[in-house]
Amino acid sequence: MSDKITNTPSREGKAPTFDFEPEQLEPFRCTGFELIELHAPGALDPRGKPIGKAPRHGWRGVAALDIDGARELLDLGVNVGVRLRETDLVVDVDPRNFESGDDPVARLERALGIRFDRWPRVDTGAGGMHFYMTVPVGFRAVDTLEGYPGIEFKAHGRQMVAPGSSHPLTGRPYRWDPLAEPVADALPAPVSLIELIRRPDPVAPTGSGECDPDAIELMLTGLDPSSFRDQSAWLELMMACHHASAGEAREEFIAWSVSDPSYADHEDIIGRRWDSLHGDDSGSRVTAKTLFKALHAAGKGDLIEQAMRADPVDDFPDDLADLPDHIGDPNQRASLLDRVNTDRFTVLTGGRYLVGRERIDPRTGLFSLEWYAPDAVKQHMNAKSVETPAGPKPLGTWWINHPQRRQYDGVLFDPTPNAQHDGMYNLWRGWAVTPRRGDWSKMRALVREVLCAGDQASYDYVMKWMAHMVQHPARPAEVAMVFKGSKGSGKGTFCRALTELAGKHGRHVTSPEHFTGRFNEHLADTIVLFVDEGFWAGDKKAEGQLKGLITEKSMSYEGKGKPIFEGPNQLHVVMASNEDWVVPATHDERRFAVFEADDSAAKAFRHFAALNDEDGPERDRMLSAMLYDLMHMELSDWHPRKDIPQTRALVDQKIEGFRKSPLDAWWFSCLENGEVNTLTGVAAHWPEGWLAGPHEKDLMLTSLHVSSKDAVSVTKTKLAKYLGKVGVSMGDKVRNSQNQKVWSVPSLQQARQSFESQIGGSIEWPD
Fold it and tell me: What is the mean pLDDT of residues 107-122?
């Protein structure tokens, strides 16, 4: 079947004029959203189906576009999409599917007690709306809700048409609502909505997964969906695709099914049917063979090999083009073996036999390691042959089977200086620069004067933290450095330099899925992890994962389609944010060292241009000097856990965390206000010490319940237990003149001091 794509007039017979607005992509800049190429708005597939809102084949695995590249596509008349990440949710509203006189959006808002206008909104160009929200990693959404026609819920594994693109039917551009919140500040989806649309996790069929979703999509192009209108034949094909992809080709199968005009409106029904499939081993099962059989019957068996062929074959660098087609000289064979061994090797890792290829990126000069299946290497290299005593052999087969090929028994990552691991391939490539004496005073000044606000103890800690990382890269820091401050205060300048110092082993991430998501294999050889505006302190699931990244000695790593393996944790985490609440710091916090930049010092700092000159020779000299001094700094037995500065910024993070707890928030409010009416609802100044009898206890509990709807479930016993921890005396011996058990509340000054001791820092209380 031809894969030719055409641009044709609309269904009405008159081609609309397609308008594009590339500037609408700018709100995505520096947000971490992933943009991909779609088709031109008027494009049709070989069957004549409009695909102006559909992505290119293989869209799941392609590298995301940067904003400038995406704008160029719009300038060329090609639509751009947003590939939804694990933390993205878009509520897609299409009023064309509303029933006459009904507004399902308003009904859903009333049912959940929410307003969608709190979230960033895109107007689609056909009267529809996209609302952008965030969700916890791992959340899966149903596509639709029965009773709410015209509303779809799209999450990870889906894609949206990006603003700035042109609608295929109207030609009008998708636009951001200028009155809505910016997408960079998208709020989490309300809990009530998440619980309503949560989809159960699919159960992957046992022994399945030989095809990825892109392979299923390609093979389905060889089958006419109208030939599968018989329910049993269609269901068997669905089961075959489900088994072949381990349940991952859901969207691809739905898209193929609804391309049959008779079932164009059955997307939701098909999705629910797919989700009902399970992974039982009992009884006979429909497997990928049913799909292959259908393709052969349709005369499209060639698509099987094309889809199953390893993608790396097409990407394997053609570095042997200068060789003759046949190498016959024995001396040439010896030098050829050395040449291939220079950057290739074989290894048995994770139960798989692979070929590794070492490369230096010509644009960045950075080392990279690529993995290929042996068959992919053979297919690439076997175009040439080698003369051997046993006759001519294809080049790839000859090298793979050669007893002197470069090979290893396994792969590990050990940055310990001078580490030796016989027979193992070490992924550690060293620091990005060679340590040399030199001047890096501008960077030190940025840390001391701006990021640490002139505080010497904070500056000393940051220097020692970096030195410990350089001198002991194999040990996790166990404390993350967190830098708060407004935009332009130098947080990114410093953290990027630290990441750059680690070269291949530095990671700059802007989304939680890149460090708390399921597929975290990239962290196995990471020394510096820079989390740039990529964490929300209120995400409880991500909180536990982040704390594990910081302190655990070992971690489980998983790559897509690869077995999970256990390895040491060697992460050194630095974070930067301009939010008020950055990290979930507790009263006895040992995982975070928090520093707040001095904005006035940042405005007066004169060296930002020099420090941000990433391509200049001065930068390499600065990093070399930085590495040298850190390597030679005297640390003795110092560890980042020792003497974590109890900065005002750290105290503020603890207080922000307390505000999220109903008991902590209520008590802190009492101490801030300094009046008894916050405690009891009765207007009075806070006495030097007072006894709360039965009546006052009831008033205090009522006051707590009134303070927050989340506090309603707190009992008097739980309240008493909490107050006992913050300085209120109670027990059998604490009684009033009527011999009643009372709570002895200390003076305001004593209560505040007790609270400060709980959080390990002083607070600037109001008068």
Answer: 93
DSSP letter assigned to residue 172: P
pLDDT one-digit tens code per residue, 66-82 = 898 899 999 989 999 99
Same domain, 463 and 558: yes
Tell whether 54 and 156 lie within a shared domain.
yes
pLDDT reading at 12 higher than 50: no
Cβ-proximal residues to 540 (8 Å cutoff; 6+ apart), any chain: 136
222 and 127 part of one domain: no
In angstroms, the CA 763 to CA 761 distance is 7
Dihedral pair phi/psi, residue 710, rounded to 5°: -75, -10
Write out the two tokens for 54: 């559909």
Among 408, 428, 462, the domain-final residue is: 408
The tally of domains found in the chain comes to 5
CA angle 427, 429, 431 (to 5 degrees): 140
Structural domain of residue 708, as residue ranges? Answer: 663-759
588 and 502: one domain? yes
CA angle 133, 134, 138 (to 5 degrees): 135
Cβ-contact 72, 33 below 8 angstroms: no
- What is the chain's percent helix, strand, coil content, to nearest 5? 40, 15, 45
Distance of CA 436 to the CA centre of its chain: 36
Indicate if the pLDDT at residue 639 is higher than 80: yes
Kindly report the pTM of this predicted structure: 0.54
Query: Based on the number of CB atoms within 10 Å of its own CB, is 615 exposed (0-12), middle (13-18) or buried (19 or more)?
Result: exposed
Q: Are the beta carbons of 449 and 597 closer than 8 angstroms? A: no
pLDDT of residue 555: 82
Domain identity same for 236 and 328: no
Please, what sign has the CA dihedral across residues 750, 756, 761, 765? Answer: negative
266 & 356 share domain:
no
What is the three-state SS of 415-481? CCCCCCCCCEEECCCCCCCCCCCCCCHHHHHHHHHHHCCCCHHHHHHHHHHHHHHHHCCCCCCCCEE
Summarize pLDDT for 149-193 with one digit per residue, the tens.
899 999 988 899 999 999 999 999 999 999 888 998 889 999 999
pLDDT band of residue 10 (cuts 50, 70, 90) is: very low
With residue 507 as reference, give the H or E element that holds it.
strand 506-509
